[in-house]
Amino acid sequence: MDYSVSGRDIILHQPDFDLDETLDCGQAFRWVKAGADCYEGYYLNSFLRISCENKAEGVFRLHDTDEADFLSQWYNYLDLSTDYGELKARFSEDETLAKACAFAGGIRILRQDKWEALSSFIISQNNNIPRIKGIIGRLVEHYGGYPSAEQLAVETAESLGFLRAGFRAKYLADAVGKLTSGALDLDVIAAQPLEQAKQSLMSIKGVGPKVAMCALLFGMHRTEAFPVDVWMKRALERWYPNGLPDCVKGYEGTAQQYLFHYIRHGL
DNA sequence: TTCCAGGCGTATC
DNA sequence: GATACGCATGGA
């Protein structure tokens, strides 16, 4: 990773990064394609326009930001401290993962906000990606930004009807209640051992093993968390009936994201 | 019309 | 603990 300041923009050199594969792959739901090789979106309520200037060399432009903003927010959000080249080399000891990494080598695990990731994946259950984006879009529009659990404390399952989230509204309300009452604290959960963190999250109605693992992986950057959804069930049956290979140890979730993309779009 | 979508709660055995 | 079934909504 290497960057430079260019006027009001930051120029980023990062070969292991693809905008479509990272920002539109079902891990985050608030990035909008704003032209060829360009996305607009948010980390919390900070806006970013990012475009790819040279795919072959991995050159990106972060528009209208500055060095302080880049280093304090986007460097972290885009997980630029992690060497994905080294991770992919390690994963590629496994034949299937080698193909998955070659197919979509620009996947990164975004370091999203804890609450946004948890609430987004509560909404995601038994739902499709376009509709998940629609529900979250209505939430953000209604509140003029992504609402905190505290902001949502005034809502009930009924008053959230404007989201058209169906049965998931009551799950969202339960999560808000447990977080704002102090029964659960996402900062505490983030520091717990994986199994304990998972069980803590599963005390929320509507949070099962899969949503808990997604909240841990995408919202708390617990790369050892391995969410198993319908696609991963198929991948496991097909390629890993006896379990995951040792080369993913500690990064099961990162490997999961390559496999998820590969079985959905690569076959 | 019917089926399905990055699952989970509940009932039942 | 395993397995069936319903669930709000909307697009294909």
Tell me what the structure shows.
By secondary structure, this protein is of the alpha+beta class. It has two domains: 2-81, TATA-Binding Protein; 114-220, Orthogonal Bundle (Endonuclease III, domain 1), CATH 1.10.340.30. It is built from 13 helices and six strands. The chain has helices at residues 19-23, 67-77, 84-91, 95-103, 114-124, 129-143, 149-152, 168-180, 186-190, 194-201, 209-219, 230-239, 252-265, and strands at 2-6, 9-13, 32-33, 38-43, 46-54, 59-63. A six-stranded antiparallel sheet has the order 1-2-6-5-4-3. It binds a DNA duplex (13 and 12 nucleotides) through residues 26-27, 121, 124-132, 134-135, 164-169, 171, 205-211, 214, 227-232, 260, 264.
Reported CATH architecture of the largest domain: Orthogonal Bundle
Return the string of H and E elements: EEHEEEEHHHHHHHHHHHH
Q: What order do the strands of the largest sheet run in, or round the barrel if closed?
A: 1-2-6-5-4-3
Number of E-type strands: 6
Ranges where pLDDT stays below 50 over 5 or more residues in a row are: none
Query: What's the overall average pLDDT, rounded?
Result: 97
Percent helix: 40-55%
| CA-based gyration radius | 18 Å
The largest pleated sheet is described as:
6 strands, antiparallel
Name the CATH class of the largest domain: Mainly Alpha
Topology:
Blueprint: E1 2-6, E2 9-13, H1 19-23, E3 32-33, E4 38-43, E5 46-54, E6 59-63, H2 67-77, H3 84-91, H4 95-103, H5 114-124, H6 129-143, H7 149-152, H8 168-180, H9 186-190, H10 194-201, H11 209-219, H12 230-239, H13 252-265
Antiparallel strand pairs: 1-2, 2-6, 3-4, 4-5, 5-6
Helix pairs in contact: 4-13, 5-11, 10-11, 12-13
This protein binds a DNA duplex (13 and 12 nucleotides) through helix 6, helix 8, helix 11 and helix 12.
